[in-house]
Write a structure and sequence with these properties.
Structural class: alpha+beta
InterPro entries: Acyl-CoA_Oxase/DH_mid-dom_sf (IPR046373), AcylCoA_DH/oxidase_NM_dom_sf (IPR009100)
CATH class of the largest domain: Mainly Alpha
CATH architecture of the largest domain: Up-down Bundle
GO molecular function, one term: oxidoreductase activity, acting on the CH-CH group of donors
Number of domains: 3
CATH superfamily of the largest domain: Butyryl-CoA Dehydrogenase, subunit A, domain 3
Radius of gyration: 21 Å
Shape: globular
Number of helices: 13
Protein name: Alkylation response protein AidB-like acyl-CoA dehydrogenase
Largest sheet: 7 strands, mixed
Number of strands: 7
């Protein structure tokens, strides 16, 4: 689509790798596989290695700007690869142990929801999973998942599972959303499913990359917000609307918000690369929550200003725009809103050293 190509070009030197409504059906994974292969191939270049996080953010933003659902499912695939590298090392053989296809697509289902998933270890050391996991995004499209479960002592552990394993039951329960409907974030039942342990107790949240991954979600939000702002920008550029102070004021507010959001993401990308390389300060909870708050505020402002300036027309007559707004509205609730702000405030109150001064 013409608009999708413009959006991708605006977000960085990337082709538009996916068009709106890219999935051919409930189990279609071809768009995700194509992007995963393209991303892996580009990751071998010297430029990408030098600025890996910024490139990753640009991919996530460009893809989510084209189709919010595809971006929502692609982000955890990249996160899973980072988790496996960090907790298992370069010689990780989990793909072989689970008999997965080459270059498998991954999901990350670590959040704990209404269901409970338990992990039991047999005498021979093998692990089995039993119970229900809620909010399993992309369950019908991926090959494997990193899943959070509680062991016999109630401790949270991370496990890798093949979704072709006997004992996995995909339900149609737990997902009635209108926005993000195509993520099919359903409940998945585990009936004595074999699993491979990834790291130890608490290692998933204790690793340095945990908050790096949390920052990637903000890049997705930003890309979707840029896409949602395009009808406002187009209206303001047309001759008749150039004298409309309300449209122009809304565009000015959106420009300030998105410029601030983009700057925060670029600075975060540099900080993450320095942290990973051991050459800079930690990029942890405080930094990730601050970034997500900046981007979430900007994205919500884009939705509000665009809607108020343009009225109901685009939401009723432009299916792509309406779907993006609905999808991003749900996606933003992956933030914990005031709870995240309270956690950020607590860190600021007790740690000091805030970047408020010039």
């Amino acid at each position: 689509m013409h608009r999708e190509s413009e959006l991708a070009a605006a977000l960085g030197p990337l082709p538009c790798l996916v068009s709106l409504d890219a999935f051919g059906g409930p189990g279609d994974a071809a768009p995700l596989r194509n992007m995963a292969r393209a991303f892996a191939a580009e990751a071998q270049t010297a430029t990408t290695r030098a600025h890996g996080t910024l490139r990753r953010f640009r991919w996530l933003a460009a893809i989510t700007g084209c189709d919010v659902v595809v971006g929502k499912l692609f982000e955890p695939h990249l996160d899973a690869l980072s988790i496996l590298e960090e907790l298992c090392g370069a010689a990780c053989d989990i793909v072989d142990r689970l008999a997965l296809p080459a270059e498998p697509l991954w999901a990350v289902w670590a959040a704990e929801g209404p269901g409970r998933l338990d992990a039991a270890q047999a005498a021979d050391g093998a692990w089995r999973l039993q119970g229900c996991k809620s909010w399993c995004s992309g369950a019908a499209r991926v090959d494997a998942a990193l899943v959070g479960a509680r062991d016999a002592g109630g401790e949270l552990r991370l496990f890798a599972v093949s979704l072709e394993s006997t004992g996995i039951e995909m339900t149609r329960e737990g997902w009635s959303a209108v926005g993000m409907a195509q993520t099919d974030s359903v409940d998945v039942l585990f009936h004595d499913v074999p699993a491979e342990s990834v790291g130890g107790v608490g290692s998933y949240v204790d690793r340095i990359g945990f908050w790096h991954g949390a920052a990637g979600i903000a890049a997705c939000w930003h890309g979707a917000a840029v896409a949602i702002a395009q009808p406002l920008r187009e209206r303001a550029a047309r001759g008749r609307a150039q004298g409309d102070p309300f449209v122009l004021a809304a565009l000015g507010a959106v420009d300030a918000s998105l410029a601030s959001s983009a700057l925060a993401l670029r600075e975060a990308a540099d900080a993450i690369d320095l942290h990973r390389g051991g050459g800079g300060p930690a990029f942890g909870q405080r930094e990730a929550l601050r970034l997500r708050a900046v981007v979430e505020t900007a994205a919500q402002g884009v939705i509000d200003h665009t809607g108020r300036a343009l009225g109901a027309g685009p939401l009723c007559r432009d299916a792509a725009h309406a779907r993006r707004v609905a999808d991003l509205t749900v996606f933003l609730r992956q933030s914990h809103a005031e709870r995240d702000l309270a956690a950020l405030g607590a860190r600021v109150a007790h740690e000091g050293d805030t970047p408020w001064m010039l």
